[in-house]
Specification:
Layout: H1 16-29, E1 34-39, E2 56-60, E3 66-71, E4 75-82, E5 85-92, E6 96-101, E7 107-109, H2 122-135
Antiparallel strand pairs: 1-2, 1-6, 3-4, 4-5, 6-7
């Protein structure tokens, strides 16, 4: 065994993408519907804004509901229909909070990951979240109070 000052764990990539693919396959093998829980406020997330609730979105990722499914170590991407319109979805790996079976909730929740320093600083991330929250339009009634 060589004496190396760098710990072996520092050389490993994140296991999240591997676990995500494994749980996805496991859910499908058990004839269930895989869902993703996503933090929609993470930098670079591309999802339909009108479906975000409390900063999160749940996505049905059943093969019959999506197209062009792609998972790599940095992100998940696919296209899906929302209200009849095809939308491209892009989910940086750090935005994925959980994958689970819709029918029984079995799956895996992922711990919050530290931001990759190559992506952006935490200050920039916080600024992006603040501006995102400002851009989300609040639903208002068309009714007016008449006195």
């Amino acid at each position: 065994m060589s004496d190396n000052s760098t710990p072996i764990s520092a050389k490993f990539t994140s296991n999240k993408a591997y676990l995500l693919r494994a749980i996805y396959d496991w859910i499908l093998d058990n004839d269930a519907t895989p869902y993703l829980l996503v933090d929609a406020l993470i930098y670079n997330v591309e999802v339909p804004q009108q479906h975000i609730k409390d900063g999160q979105i749940v996505l049905n990722i059943m093969p019959s509901a999506i197209q062009n499914w792609h998972v790599d170590n940095t992100a998940v991407s696919f296209s899906a229909r929302f209200s009849g319109q095809v939308q491209n979805i892009y989910l940086p790996m750090n935005s994925i909070m959980a994958i689970y079976a819709h029918e029984n909730g079995l799956g895996m929740a992922f711990p919050e990951e530290a931001m990759d320093e190559n992506v952006e600083s935490s200050e920039t991330h916080e600024q992006a979240q603040i501006s995102e929250k400002k851009n989300v339009k609040k639903e208002t009634s068309h009714l007016k109070i008449v006195k």
